[in-house]
Amino acid sequence: MLSAAHRLRRSSEFAAAIRGGRRAGRGSLVVHLRMPAFPAADRPPSPKPAPSGGTRSTTEPPRAGFVVSKAVGNAVTRNAVRRRLRHLVRDRMDGLPPGADLVVRALPEAAGASSARLGHDLDAALAAARAPRRPNRGRR
User: Fold this and answer.
1) Domain for residue 67, yes or no?
2) What is the reported pTM?
3) Which domain covers residue 76, as residue numbers?
4) Which of 20, 53, 62, 107 is 20 to 30 A from 126 via CA?
5) What is the per-residue pLDDT across 29-38, written as a single tens digit (0 to 9) for each?
6) Where does 27-119 show beta strands of DSSP type E?
């Protein structure tokens, strides 16, 4: 189980992580990773207001939340998938930067996936979400 300080609880926190974070999907799941904002002194002033959910400081612990819809299966299956994902994320919380928010969304394939497969998909998705973006060169 994740401690209370490491859990996303409100729908506004989930929405902020999904809207403001980087998305990466691999196999049986999709992750949305919202990194902490830079200190105000290190960035120029923004004319736009802060996204809903507010900003988090880099002194707060990383948090995680899980989305397992009815498309994954019945209640017993959904809860089993959520427990397995929670266990996998708990082991990877130390690798996330302080102040980060992570939302893990299970796809229907997660119901039949082994824990090893879920762990591999989670590691690959987290690596993709943390990787720097490639410049968009446009299509010709």
Assistant:
1) yes
2) 0.80
3) 4-37+57-130
4) 53
5) 999 999 886 5
6) 29-34, 63-68, 101-106
